[in-house]
Amino acid sequence: MSSPKRVGVLTSGGDCPGLNAVIRGVVKSATRFGYEVVGFRRGYEGLVDPVDYMMLDRKNTLGIINQGGTILGSTNKGRFSARKGVDQRVELPKELIQEVKSTFRVLNIEGLICIGGDGSLAVAEQFEEHGLPVIGVPKTIDNDLSSTAFSFGFDSAVACATDAIDRLYTTAISHERVMVVEVMGRHAGWIALHAGIAGGAGVILIPEIPWNFENVCQKILERDRENKRFSVIVVAEGAHLPEGGLVAGTSSGNAQARLGGIGDIVSHELEHRLNREVRCVILGHLQRGGPPTNFDRCLATMYGAHALRLLIQKKFGMMVSYQPPMIRAVPIKEAVGKLAQVTLDNSGVEAARALGISFGDIDSRESLSALGWR
Ligand SMILES: Nc1ncnc2c1ncn2[C@@H]1O[C@H](COP(=O)(O)OP(=O)(O)OP(=O)(O)O)[C@@H](O)[C@H]1O
Ligand SMILES: O=P(O)(O)OC[C@H]1O[C@](O)(CO)[C@@H](O)[C@@H]1O
Ligand SMILES: [Mg+2]
What residues does the Phosphofructokinase domain cover (predicted)? Predict the structure, then answer.
């Protein structure tokens, strides 16, 4: 009797809404095409000693499309550090790769679907270089993976941040206060930009645009003059301080530094400079929890089904990519080679400036004229 065809799947890196929807998409379509599905636990860690997996089927993935988190577990620490900082490659040890190869052999894995962000897909990239059959699925609330319009999880994080801004807006008005909201976004300000626009923020501070306190204060004072004696300021955790540097805790080894706290710094400085009441809310991991939005459920399901298609077609080393309205395939290498950051000519940035939202940098009208607006 021939052994069953098997596909592996794992979720790696920071969790986000939609991971379970991808798993379900893979399992439902794989089952229809005659595959068994092996789900590795705690990301890549489950591939090596002690090998840790569970067989996934229609029954144990039933009803998980709207569940946050991941039934397989995930980690952003361990033995599979393939990158340090933004883009410094770290070579995975040869013995580790051999162990993974042995797991593939023993469990008869035809291909592995790796669901992860930039760091996790950099591991998949090295697997591919060593001849391991992998398919990538772009996950991250930060939306900083290039070669795809959206990673799933981003829309859910923006929905969470926008809801928070909506709530802070009304209390800001009641008390005529300045409210600072710190959102996630390690290297890219997509969450801050989209939630800031959607929530009607007055100021958005992101890693890609250098800013200073004078300009932020000016915007708040300008609003005062317009009789809007309240302001909501959205700041990405990865925004650089005006004097340079990130607000982060310490990190050990190749682990990424834990960001957070810039909101408090902005808030204290504004309070001091404006002699006004300022409050700060750090949203943190709230943005990574809870059910996925409808958009993310749909995107994640499409990613799961199309990842399985790529596997059947033996298009290894490729990542599913959303190029509206199609799901296409791009090399994982290309997707992790460059971070997708907010650019000054981004349509969202331009629209925000046209509306008078400040990025804490030069005057909006000045920068729009430079971009050809009159
Ligand atoms: N098993 C592991 N061992 C060591 N590091 C890991 C492991 N799995 C993931 N990581 C690291 O975790 C970090 C986050 O992973 P990833 O990029 O996939 O997620 P993310 O959601 O984009 O989060 P972030 O924005 O924090 O990078 C990366 O630095 C990645 O290299
Ligand atoms: O789970 P941890 O280690 O706190 O990770 C936090 C990081 O993960 C992300 O949420 C991305 O998933 C970043 O925005 C953030 O810096
Ligand atoms: Mg990342």
Answer: 6-310
Q: Which CATH number fits domain 6-152+292-336: 3.10.350.10, 1.10.357.10, 3.40.50.450, 3.10.310.40?
A: 3.40.50.450
**CA 161 to CA 183: how far, in whole Å?**
7
ipTM of the complex: 0.95
Tokens, residue 91: 């070579």
Q: Contact 287/161 with Cβ under 8 angstroms?
A: yes
**Does the pLDDT of residue 309 top 90, yes or no?**
yes
Ligand 1: lining residues by beta carbon, under 6 Å: 12-14, 43-45, 75-83, 116-120, 140, 142, 186, 256
**Architecture of the domain spanning 154-289+343-371:** 3-Layer(aba) Sandwich (3.40)
Q: Residue 92 carries which DSSP code?
A: P
Distance 185 CA to ligand 3 centre (A): 9
- Two tokens at 117? 């962000």
pLDDT for 88 beyond 70: yes
Catalytic residues: 142
**Does position 252 have pLDDT exceeding 70, yes or no?**
no
**How far is the first Cα of the chain from the last one, in angstroms, to the nearest whole number?**
73
CA angle 41, 47, 48 (to 5 degrees): 120
| pTM attached to this predicted model | 0.96
For the cut 70, the answer to whether the pLDDT of residue 1 exceeds it is no
The answer, yes or no, to whether any atom of ligand 2 lies below 6 A from the CB of 139, is no
The helix/strand/coil state of 199 is helix
Q: Which atom of ligand 1 is nearest to the CA of 123?
A: 31
Q: How many residues can be counted in the chain? A: 374
Whose alpha carbon is nearest atom 16 of ligand 2?
A: 186
196 C-beta closer than 6 A to ligand 2: no
Which numbered atom of ligand 1 lies nearest the CA of 15?
A: 21
| Domain ranges in the chain with CATH number 3.40.50.460 | 154-289+343-371
Atom 13 (ligand 1) nearest CA: 76
pLDDT band for 358, please (50, 70, 90 cuts).
Answer: very high
- Distance (Å) from CA 362 to ligand 3 centroid: 29
Ligand that comes closest to the CA of residue 115 = 1
